Amino acid sequence: MQDDKTNKKVIPIIEEEPKMVSLYQAHVKIQPKSVKGFFNNWRWAMVWVTQIVFYCLPWIEWGQRQAVLFDLGARRFYIFGLVLYPQDFIYLTGILVISALSLFLFTAVAGRLWCGYACPQTVYSEIFMWIEKKVEGDRSARLRLDGESITSGNKLWRKTLKHFLWIVLALWTGFTFVGYFTPIKELAVEFAQWNLGAWEIFWVFFYAFATYGNAGFMREQVCLHMCPYARFQSAMFDKDTLIVTYDEERGEPRGARSKKADPKALNLGSCVDCSLCVQVCPTGIDIRNGLQYQCIGCGACADVCDGVMDKLGYERGLVRYTTEHAMQNKWTKAQTWRHVFRPRVLVYTSILVGIVVAMLVSLATRTQFKVNVVRDRGVMARIVDGGKLENLYQLQVMNATEKTQRYKITVKGLPNLSISSDNIVTLDSTQQRKLAVRVQAPYDVAAPGTHEIHFEIDALDSEGHLSEKTVFIVPK
Predict the structure, then answer these.
(1) DSSP assignment, residue 179?
(2) What pTM did the predictor assign?
(3) Quick check: 1 pLDDT over 80?
(4) For residue 354, what are the contacts with CB-CB under 8 A and spacing of at least 6?
(5) Where along the chain do its domains lie?
(6) Which CATH architecture is the domain 369-474 placed in?
(7) Contacts of 204 (CB under 8 A, 6+ apart)
(8) DSSP 8-state secondary structure symbol assigned to residue 61
(9) Are the C-beta atoms of residues 237 and 273 closer than 8 Å to each other?
(10) What band does 420 get if pLDDT is binned at 50, 70 and 90?
(11) What percent of the chain is modeled with pLDDT above 70?
(12) CB within 8 A of 177, min separation 6: which ones?
């Protein structure tokens, strides 16, 4: 239109409805297809091993107690015949160091082995998806069921049954977890009578809720957005690390063809573009696009691709565990493995073996009792009957075994030094006691000042000896 006064064209303003623009991609539920093969068998073997250990271990008896029990109230950790105390914190540090080095070693050798085979998130997701498959059917059946109306009777009973089984498994998992900290048989009785303590109720349901939510709903979202390991794993990879890899040179150009067709005549690679590798992936990625941080290294795509290659009569290994250098240089398996065990891996292995051996030797040779000596600062050195000097000490003796033990206390360091109080102490299993010990010496035993002495403690009913240093004060 035109303005009559200015003789200029005027562009009319058209008001549009505001539009909502999302900054985040909508989450699409991933329904992985079931797969059979070598790597899948290993994954399920790890599921069985880890869960048999987790669910059965608290029920094993060792003597008159639970074999593995972390008794936080009594500040004792029972691991079969081993009893650890807060003073044994160094062993926890050793376990953490061993775990970290193991993670570095496995990652340097073959990428995210922990994520793909032993991580609790992977293990419980596999179990929950197995229940889902048994109740709702295979991938195509689950997709059809998700598309049905919630009012559908078929969908309602299947979804209800699935969630019921998930909740039962999650509660049993939470109950077992708490059973490592509260004797599980007592916990079972309290649970049956609904007489649990507040903290026990909290942790049973908290752990159950975490298992139900993470393995039932969040699944790959935990790996993609919550777990930090995927973000820094690249720092531990190099071009000699075994990773799940698509052989692009052999597979491209991809395309469908009949089983009897000659791919060379059609100018096609080995990949038939069936997309099964995407359908079986628990994180929904396409391995043909190269290594991605979302890949957990489970090998499901390699299993399903090998199955397709078998049906077509092609050589296996279009998707396989290999290294970047092996792909570039076309190495044989022997050459690849020689480069996998490179100096970096050997250094990790040597350090790990050294720490494990040192920790085992320390556990095997540690003394089964502990003694702390504190000089009684409230009582100065004094002269007692007979003209002798006396110093008073507080000894805390701990029996770290599960049998009654007797300990003999002696002292040395100055001439004619002796203990005037009872020097034999008897302690029940895992008991500790404070006792006052009076040490006497002749008045002229030494020059005025502090003099180093040693308390010698010997176990009378077992092998063990400790020597604790302190000082004897001679007044001016």
Answers:
(1) T
(2) 0.81
(3) no
(4) none
(5) 38-229, 234-329, 369-474
(6) Sandwich (2.60)
(7) 171, 174, 175, 177, 178, 191, 196
(8) E
(9) no
(10) confident
(11) 94
(12) 203, 204, 207
